Task: inverse folding
């Protein structure tokens, strides 16, 4: 009987030892929508994490430890996300890749902040997540919603030396949202837009608003919206022989715009995402996904791939799993990722990703520096 | 002052297009009391036809005014054929049905024609060549563009011709007779079916003129342009008094100016608010529209 007890005790000890051994891994929490309506946004991130972790483990892991994935499903709902956050904290996640939706991310962030866990989202674009300064533990590998507006305003003021600007939008979520961000940035720089107006998409013509722009004396028009209306306005302006510059967004950086507006499109500026299709790492990452999962990667895959790399290499460069060391490493190093060479600013937004400015030159959009 | 004039002419251009389309609505309503919701699509088909013809002819080396006129005429004929067929297929079989049935049929035809063009052509926006050439003597005029001038001269000529046609020709008289009392006209030997067909043909041809001119002015079309233009023109027809030809023209102009001045002096955010606010306001005081006659209920 005594012997049996001893054996049991040894067994118990070994069990504990087993757990202690398991605790000695780097735990990458991956939180996001892995089921439900928005699973297509979350699963590519999980796949990216699996591939990156697989590669890293094959090379010996991080800080000599193996990496383990803790996948948690938040179905993109804030109330679920808060629980997921607590669960990952209690499971002692070292860092968290996620969440996917902005609302869910925000709900879980406080939990991570209190537990001092670095969190990096591949897809949450809400501006306040970084710029409010409330979440020093938060990073992301996607541009915030206002990134295009920021670029447009900086470009207009610094490169084009615009003094007076008219802001026009199409009253849609996308166009009006951008226009309002741009208005805010201009006002912060002390430039008050001479015009801020919405137009009705699909209207028969826009001669009245063109008139208004002309008489407002603006040097540049900043348009938030899509190409059909932009083409009509640009054509109207050029036919009136106006020299006002036209700056717009990704909705206009479309070849259809050039096709429709023809010669009148010349010289129009539009922001658009930085091209990653020629990045060898991006090509390799997509190939890897096809080989491993037999399909094309989905939404935010490259962003997630980049985020996984940054998190794990950040730990490696920090030399420890200490919170302060990781955040410092993320902010002071540049990482090679499928999105290009990136680093992170004070707020946690990635530098080196996002948008660049394009201009129509000889019937083609050309990137302008 | 210059600003005012530019807005005035901008509104006039827009109003002219509304008027050209509104004429079709108002004529059809005057004769068979049907709101032809597919009328906006006829306008769109006119614009597409002109685009196709103009592209083909400019490849053949044609240009200038002859190209505009030829493309316009082909568009008018083609649209007229569509209008004629539309009436035969969708409205004639329902002539004795309750009034709601042809209305639903009209909405159905509108959706059908939109999707037909979407499938047969493209869902993309297409570039429309500037068929209206700049006049050399307009070189230094900034308040008005050549194409705007052409648009309202054309509208004025078309409206005058239409008024003369209705007033002085045999067919015009027959149209007025059918508008007053269809049964009586039939008893007196007026070929009602023919009158209705002619009404649809004229209305469609006018819509095509509007489509060609405005597309050339703004430089782009797609399959959906007929919807908003149709709604606005219908508003113009109601505003002016549906069934009345001068009313349609006046309604179009008033609507065009309201939109233009609302954008110019208030904000383009409120363009539609002013346009439809005006409609409500006028209908409160003149339920039959500005020039409409109130008909007493026949018991």
Result:
């Amino acid at each position: 009987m005594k012997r049996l007890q001893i054996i049991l005790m040894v067994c118990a000890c070994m069990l504990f030892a087993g757990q202690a051994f398991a605790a000695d891994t780097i735990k990458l929490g991956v939180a996001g929508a892995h089921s439900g309506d928005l699973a297509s946004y979350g699963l590519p991130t999980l796949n990216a994490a699996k591939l990156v972790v697989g590669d890293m483990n094959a090379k010996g892991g991080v800080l000599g430890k193996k990496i383990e994935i803790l996948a948690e499903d938040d179905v993109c709902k804030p109330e679920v996300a808060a629980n997921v956050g607590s669960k990952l904290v209690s499971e002692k996640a070292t860092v968290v890749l996620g969440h996917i939706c902005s609302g869910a991310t925000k709900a879980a962030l406080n939990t991570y902040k209190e537990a001092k866990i670095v969190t990096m989202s591949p897809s949450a674009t809400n501006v306040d997540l970084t710029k409010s300064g409330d979440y020093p533990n938060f990073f992301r590998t996607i541009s915030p919603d206002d990134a295009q507006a920021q670029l447009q305003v900086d470009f207009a003021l610094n490169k084009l030396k615009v003094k007076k600007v008219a802001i026009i939008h199409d009253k849609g979520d996308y166009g009006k949202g951008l226009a309002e961000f741009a208005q805010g940035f201009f006002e912060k720089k002390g430039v008050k837009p001479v015009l801020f107006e919405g137009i009705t998409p699909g209207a028969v013509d826009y001669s009245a608003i063109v008139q208004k722009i002309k008489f407002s004396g603006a040097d540049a028009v900043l348009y938030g919206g899509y190409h059909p209306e932009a083409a009509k306005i640009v054509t109207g302006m050029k036919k009136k022989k106006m020299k006002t510059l036209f700056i717009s967004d990704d909705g206009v950086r479309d070849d259809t715009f050039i096709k429709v507006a023809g010669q009148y499109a010349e010289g129009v500026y539009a922001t658009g995402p930085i091209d990653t299709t020629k990045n060898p790492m991006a090509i390799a990452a997509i190939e890897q996904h096809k080989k491993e999962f037999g399909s094309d990667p989905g939404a935010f895959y490259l962003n997630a791939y980049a985020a996984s790399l940054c998190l794990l290499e950040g730990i490696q460069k920090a030399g420890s799993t200490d919170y302060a060391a990781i955040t410092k490493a993320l902010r002071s190093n540049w990482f090679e990722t499928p999105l290009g060479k990136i680093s992170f600013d004070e707020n946690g937004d990635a530098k080196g990703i996002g948008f660049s400015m394009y201009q129509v030159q000889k019937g083609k959009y050309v990137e302008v520096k | 002052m210059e600003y005012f004039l530019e807005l005035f002419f901008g509104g006039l251009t827009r109003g002219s297009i509304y008027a050209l389309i509104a004429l079709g609505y108002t004529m059809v309503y005057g004769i068979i009391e049907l709101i032809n919701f597919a009328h906006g699509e006829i306008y769109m088909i006119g614009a597409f036809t002109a685009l196709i013809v103009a592209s083909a002819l400019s490849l053949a080396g044609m240009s200038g005014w002859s190209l505009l006129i030829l493309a316009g005429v082909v568009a008018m004929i083609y649209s007229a054929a569509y209008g004629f067929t539309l009436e035969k297929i969708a409205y004639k079989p329902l002539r004795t049905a309750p009034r709601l049935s042809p209305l639903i049929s009209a909405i159905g035809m509108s959706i059908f024609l939109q999707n037909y063009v979407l499938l047969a052509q493209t869902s993309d926006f297409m570039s429309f060549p500037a068929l209206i050439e700049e006049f050399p003597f307009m070189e230094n005029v900034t308040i008005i563009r050549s194409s705007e001038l052409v648009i309202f001269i054309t509208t004025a000529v078309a409206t005058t011709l239409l008024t003369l046609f209705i007033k002085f020709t045999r067919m015009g008289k027959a149209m007025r007779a059918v508008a007053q009392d269809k049964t009586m006209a039939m008893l007196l030997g007026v070929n009602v079916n023919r009158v209705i067909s002619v009404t649809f043909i004229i209305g469609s041809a006018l819509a095509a003129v509007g489509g060609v001119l405005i597309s050339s002015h703004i430089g782009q079309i797609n399959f959906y342009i007929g919807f908003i233009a149709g709604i606005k023109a219908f508003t113009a027809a109601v505003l002016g008094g549906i069934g009345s030809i001068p009313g349609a023209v006046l309604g179009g102009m008033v609507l065009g100016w309201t939109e233009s001045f609302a954008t110019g002096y208030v904000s383009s955010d409120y363009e539609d608010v002013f346009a439809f606010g005006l409609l409500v306001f006028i209908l409160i005081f003149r339920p039959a529209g500005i020039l409409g006659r109130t008909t007493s209920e026949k018991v």
Remarks:
- Residues 2-285 of chain B form a domain with the ABC transporter involved in vitamin B12 uptake, BtuC fold (CATH 1.10.3470).
- The mean pLDDT of chain B is 91.
